[in-house]
Amino acid sequence: MIAALIEAAPTFWLSLKLATLVSLILLAIGLPLGWLSAKRRFCCQALLEGVLFLPLVLPPTVLGFYLLLLLGPEGPIKRLFGRTLAFHFEGLVVAGVIFSLPFALAAFREAFAALPDDLVETARTLGAGPVKVWRAVVLPLVWPGVLSGLLLAFAHTLGEFGVVLMVGGAIPGETRVVSIYLYDLVEALDFGRAHVVAGALLLFSLGLLLLVRRLEARWKSATGS
Amino acid sequence: MEVRYRILRPVAMEVAFSIRGLTVLLGESGAGKTTVLRALAGLSPGEGAPFGNLRPEARPVGYLPQQHALFPHMTALANVAFPISGPKTERLSRARALLERLGVANLADRYPAQLSGGQRQRVALARALARGPELLLLDEPTSALDAVSKAQVVDELAGFVRGLSVPALVASHDPDLARIADWVVVLEGRRVVQEGTPLAVFSEPATLATARLVGFKNLYPARVLSTEPCLIETPFGCMRAGCGAGLSPGSRVVLAVRSEEVILVREDRSRDRIENPVPARIRRLLPEGIAVRLLLEAAAPIEVVLPRHVADRLPLAEGRAVTVAFKRRYMHLLPVPG
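Predict the joint structure of the above. Result:
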């Protein structure tokens, strides 16, 4: 079993690296998007949000197909930046950000929506500038919601299969993440190793979910909702 | 302090009024009270004086929204220390002093969720004072309180605000609060329709809506018959009144009389010396604390409130015939709303 885990280590490592990078990028773009979505009204909001949430309902292969066209050797990204992202780790990161965004965004939006406007406004009338308002009022109240959204996106990126296969293939060390590795093992009828890898993923995902639940409970008690 | 503001959103309004000591901005919900307060705090876009063109964080106001907006993740002490700048120990000791001043120093370590409505209000007031405001803005301070704590809080609030010598503008629909103010500004349909001392506003409301707001229960359609002498046609027949300027024969008006200012005539009084007598019958007799409320049947329903010491000396019973009098000085002729 140890040997099987050591053998699988590079794919686990690649998956964790991917999920971590994707989560950090989601934090950077998801927070402002979540704030806008929860607190502001603007033109075509429903349409824009619908587009961002589309990956939730699209078959992963459909999303993967379009991403492949976008990132592939003939795609607009190549023409604009001169680089093919498909079948490279960077391509997986772009794909991961797009297909995990709805998970992070939904949680961020809910966290911001639960934050009463009058707290932010009153903080300003008490002399707090935007930086102090965010540091002392907004972030302390929304962080459990934000973190649970990030963990969900992290777990989802870790487990994604269809999009990753379409966009990245299974190049060892570059795009063969653990979910693809597991598929390869099963295809080769290597059920012994598959058991070890699948079991490890199962335990890891369960741990993440429990963490999310705990954070949500804590967040609810903090906001009194 | 003179206020002059042009507000654009969420509703367009233009207001000008004075703030003198404890000033109550009186109006029904939807009259624009909160909008005026928010504009003064810089939270709604508007221009004017005072504080126009300043960002909210730069305005020297202490703003208390309706739900007090205490930060739920901070203790009472940390909430009050929030607007204070400087080294931590100094901030905390100043915050503690403010809590003490409001009589809630013992609650310093509690979180807002562990405080009652009245306690929250005091903590929020301490926090609003912490930045040394030139003007306090309180939005419906009595709306979240039950009747018992309301009376207490209204009393304390008034005493406290007067002791501070910081002017306060209090938005409220509550006539009880307006009664004890130094100055009352009446807002109706997003316009200031009247301002003055509580006595002036309560005894001579400028509009029908204001009359209702300050508790006038007896309101009757009437028409001016002549101005010299001033005679009006009412549901009770022709009456002598006091015609103000702007009324001419034929003017339609509303006759307004407070329930406390309808006179119940003693039976032994000679009829011919009574001003505007109206025969009536007692339909209901409702004891109300230390007063008695009478609902009378006449050409139009009349409501009378008598202090108990007066009611006790009169033979009152449901179904009994009585005579009431409308005295000229208590009769107000209001313009009919267009």
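The mean pLDDT of chain B is 87.
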